Amino acid sequence: MHNPQLNKNGELQHLLTTEGLPKSIINHILDTAASFVSIGNRDVKKVPLLRGKSVFNLFFENSTRTRTTFEIASKRLSADVINLNIAASSTSKGETLLDTIDNLSAMHADMFVVRHSQSGVPYLIARHLHDTRQDHVHVVNAGDGRHAHPTQGLLDMYTIRHYKKDFTGLRVAIVGDILHSRVARSDIHALTTLGVPEVRAIGPKTLLPGGLEQMGVRVFNNMDEGLKDVDVIITLRLQHERMSGALLPSAQEFFKSYGLTPERLALARPDAIVMHPGPMNRGVEIDSAVADGPQAVILSQVTFGIAVRMAVMSILAGN
To answer: Fewest 10 Å CB contacts: which of 5, 34, 101, 122?
Structure first.
């Protein structure tokens, strides 16, 4: 079965998901990202690798943070960046998604960064580009539905590698609403590919999808048991619409059972790191004392995220 992310030489053509992404390519992205990070002043260098290239940010779903980091990454690579708020423009005029893509391709787009509320849209665009012989245009999935958020998964891997050096001895816990989380899926696929021996999912039964065990994940409904002796804790954002209703009694109840407090953090290894894809709901997923404490690496994730997105785009453009 051909991997739609790779060209016939096995090189990265699109970044659509961490699922099935070869370990060698993940490591190549992480190594490339490392070359962009100036350690010490937490800065990311500017390089001319995408000079003369056009990157179109196609955000069919709002996300200021992700769009901003892609925009910064593109500009640090010296690309021309075009931001399109698609939700408001073409689709409301009745243009189909693929007509929009064809029109933008005709404007000499080199790369589409796509975020969409429906799973599978970046795949659809990548397949269309292939079918219409526009293989010079690359697609980066910036989050699709509940399916995948590969650059977030990769920046999480970069962060873990930066602080822990090696994946092969780690216990990593992912906490919260895994059912609806594209970040959790991207993290789980990347962690298992990179050889993490124990990935744990912690959350209430209503927020854990079926099939986690088949993905090699240990499932815990009890937070204290799940955090015991872990090296890395990834807390997930709880969407407001899930906090009241069928899946959870309330945000307060969630925090009582699954909030990351200093007491719970103490159950993990003493040098455990705490991560969060942001933006955080303080007092819901995470206590402020933990979020602002010495074990939290959440701001480093943001810095590393720019370098990882630069790495992905420069590798794609270099094919």
So the answer is: 34
